[in-house]
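During the no-cost extension, the postdoctoral fellow (Dr. R.K.) reprocessed legacy sequence entries with the updated structure-token encoder. One reprocessed record is reproduced below for audit purposes.
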Amino acid sequence: MEIVIAVAERIVEYTVEPVGRWLCYSCHYKSNMENLKNQVKTLRNAKDRVQHAIEAASNNGDEIEDDVKTWLTEVDGIMHQLATKKFGGDEEEEESRNSNASCLNLKQRHQISREAKKMAGNISELLENGNFDRVSYRPASQEMVTPRNMDYMTFDSRISITNKIMEALRDANIHKIGVWGSPGVGKSTLMKEIFGKAKEEGLFNEVALANVTDSADPIRRIQGEIAEMLGLELGPDRTEIGRAARLRARLEKDKEKKTLVILDDIWKHLDLEEIGITPSKRCKVLLTSRDRQVLSSEMGTEENNFKLDILEEEAAWNLFEKMAGDSLKDDLVVQSVAIKVAKACGGLPIALVTVSRALKNQKNLGDWEDALVELTRPPPEHDTRIWSPVYSCIQLSYKHLVGRELKSLFLLCAQQGYYISYRDLLKYGFGLCLFHGIHTLKEARNRLDKLVRNLQDACLLLQSPHSSEEYYMHDIVRHVATIIASNDHNMFVMRSDGGQKAWPDVDALKRCEALSVLGGQYPEKMEFPKLRYFHVQEKYLPTSIFFQGIDTLEVLSLTNMVVTSPPFPFPNLRALCLDGCKLGNIGRIGKVSTLVILSLAYSNILGLSKEIGSLTHLRLLDLTNCVKLHLIPSNVLSRLVNLEELYMRNICFLWEVEEPNNEGKLASLAELKHLSHLVTLEIDIRNGMKLPKDLFSQDLERYKICIEDIWTSAFEGEAFSRTLHFKLNMSFQLDFGIKMLLKKTEYLYLDESNRTTSILYELDREDFQQLKHLHIQNNNIKHIPNLRTPAVTFPILETFVLKGMTSLKEICQGNLPLTSFKNLKVLKVESCQKLRFIFSSSIARGLSLLEELNITRCNIVGVIFMKEEENGIEEAVGDMMLFHRLQTLVLEGLPKLVSFLSTRETNSEGSHDLQLPLLHHHQLSFPSLKELHLRDLPRIKHVWSKEVFRFSCSTSFSC
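Re-encoded structure tokens follow.
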């Protein structure tokens, strides 16, 4: 019985239940189909909503989330299934199926109902998954930076600075980097190049670039630009502090991620923390500015600043030619003018690109010639297609100069010729009271030094290659400065070599406050009732035209002119400069009691009148190169009690000998001791004059003093502010005043051919601490005194010249610290007939900065550098003797020379293998050598061995 029951249960399990489920699908056919229909409708509506959100996001530039894309794909897939199985098809077909449901056999009803329920379940799951909080995200704008005019980035100068910046970015210890350069030089374009290279090389996971510029709300805008490039939503309602916190959290979130933030075009201090940036190994900051001072002092990038220079002439032409199109290649006449146009752009990329685009594919010669005129003589309206963008760029830099003084100095520079003298700026600036709160020339110098540095840091004033006290302006910067000066400040510059030639109208001249005439013709009659500064550079001055009714004049500068009778006095004149003029009677100058500056340099004056002594307010007197001057009455100089600067170089004036009861008619040197405010002195003292005791005050800060010698036109000491040039006789006494000057001297030239005992024996080691250039000649010493002590003697010496030292046996006696000549760049030894070698090898290893080595006419020099020995044992082979910066090596007239580096025995007669090359030693290396001059070396058979000598492949030599 139990078996029967078990069998019956199994039959029910395998037959009744499946039949029941089968009948259930058939019975619920209508409800399942209705449910599916509703689900399909809901799904369609959900899809439409998502699609609308996607369209809106795409229109805003957002990226669609991947899970949203997947969901849409799945929706499309199930819709396709419904259509294929005719589920959820068109309504007419669906209604037909429902109305004929009774006609379906049980098997069809079961199958359709079952699939409908399954489909409804799948749709229900899709609907649940389709409840998105958002369908899109704001992409990080990493691909938004597209470099412009990248062709010029291939030039050597651009490649070099790009590589240097990239190297700094790779350095884990550098967190902030600065790049500075002239307006329009291409800093922003360079930043786009760095952006691309940083991404390309994978140095950073993310790179963000924000243009700072000069905006009203820079912090909020910078935050927004950085956040956009990082794909971060800051929210419009957040405060700056809240936005900074959110940005900082984003930058510091991932410990493994590295970010580079580029802030382009900074004008003033920017608080990075206030923005939300903390520079670190994982978040580096690259900054650009037109002003080096902003980067160095205010942003703290002093140690890691890079300057972007203008393009060199060849590179500038290549860029210009490429941008101007193929028309230049077809017409050589047009091309010749185009070359001049490109040169007039002065290597400034913004000018090169602007002008070349304006003239692109232009074949008309007249248009090119007109562009050349426009560049060299800019229109006062500055709103032409060529000038407008260039003017705006530089005018913006002028606008951001801080303070009236700095802007006034910039405009004063524009009033000068091509080269701008520091001394002229001092004279004119002090005469115009340009420096606020300044009463002395010493104070004015300090202020002027700072202002000049500020203009240089802003790339609006450049250092002259000729002198440390001379500057110049980029041609385009000077043109813009001239336009600003004339349009906004009633300052005019008339030039014969380009620039403004046509004189302003009468009304403009009546408003004129500053006028420079650097050539051209004069109108018949002019009035200047407000003129304060007047500079003329011509051969003849029609004084009847210029000097009628000018009571406001403060600075008058006439250069290289004939001035027979200066039209004085002017009631407010403070500075009078008659440099290079042919002058008549200058006695009337003494009546201009307001004068604080008087410059007669290079003029033809024969003497100073007694009236000059009445100028008790005078602060500066310049008589440089007044070669005809032979009369200075006594008590003229001594009465100039406020004099701070006196220039009397290259004057053959015979000073009166000061003796008891001698009331001479001429000035004596002792009068200089009455000038208690004197801080600058340039003077020649000749004809065996005996110097008054303590003539030179220890208060002198700048001096060029020449005794018994002549300044040459190629005078090396010109670049130094503290120079002593002595050709001494037996009467010379080293008094306290001179010894104090020696302690501060930068350049010392010492010729003692007329003395038996050198003053060097009277000097201490401390007397050389500031020395940068030392020239000793015609001296009978056997070694340089005070080079026997173990202390550092010449810590900053750069140039060392020994000439005609007939008794000199050793330059250094004993062991000196390696750092004694650590800054030496030039070493010249000539005609030292008892000298056997130059330096020991230990000293030579410290000459890492040496650039020029010149040894000539030394009869017994056997080696240049002597390897040292201790207790008869030659020093062990040490490190490579690397003359890394040596560019010029001259060895001439050395009959005993056998080796560049060797032992003491090498120098003995016959002990050296003459088959060995001069530069054979394996410890020598000259990687930067460019010039090698060898002459009159009879014992040298070979110069070098290829196996061991290391030199630059560009080396040239002569024998």
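The mean pLDDT is 80. The two ends are 132 Å apart (CA to CA). The remaining legacy entries will be reprocessed before the final report is submitted.
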